[in-house]
Design goal:
The chain is an alpha+beta fold. It has 5 helices and 4 strands, in the order H-H-H-E-H-E-E-H-E. Helix 2 packs across helix 3.
Length: 151
């Protein structure tokens, strides 16, 4: 959970530069006209407030036998919060969110030859309370999309 924190324009510029997570703070500071300590302190504050996480991402198709999908869920309205928590804990799930539109929840899920979509459907999803229906949207091609490796 993020603590209350207001992100200002300098914070946003730092985050934009951190898209390359290996970029030195000194380089970011130079481009923004602030000190290296200012960048370091702001990054640390954002991490502590859980509004920023610096992680490595992968393109699933670059790893043999891996594939990704966005899985959408319709859920009993009284059980959306519980289902959100339960889906978040399932193996292979990178992230989950409540959404507007035709579905209540969407999850970014990573699969491989050992942890298949079939196992996800028939072993994991029956444990989730309040599911009415699901749709799986497999990633067949992407541009500038990567995900965490969670398997």
């Amino acid at each position: 959970m993020s603590r209350s924190m207001v992100i200002d324009e300098i914070d946003l510029e730092i985050v934009r530069h951190l898209w390359d997570g290996r970029k030195p703070y000194a380089d970011i500071a130079s481009k923004l006209g602030v000190t290296t300590n200012t960048v370091r302190n702001r990054v640390n504050k954002m991490i502590e407030a859980s509004v920023l996480e610096i992680i490595g991402l992968i393109e699933p198709k670059a790893i043999a036998g891996h594939y990704a999908a966005f899985v959408t869920f319709k859920v009993d309205p009284a059980k959306v919060a519980k289902a959100l928590e339960q889906i978040c804990e399932i193996k292979g799930v990178n992230g989950v969110a409540c959404v507007s539109g035709g579905f209540d929840i969407v999850a970014d899920v990573l699969f491989n030859e050992e942890y298949t979509h079939e196992k996800f459907l028939f072993e994991e999803l029956p444990k989730v309370e309040g599911l009415k229906s699901i749709e799986t949207h497999f990633v067949v091609k992407s541009i500038n999309w990567q995900t965490r490796y969670v398997l």
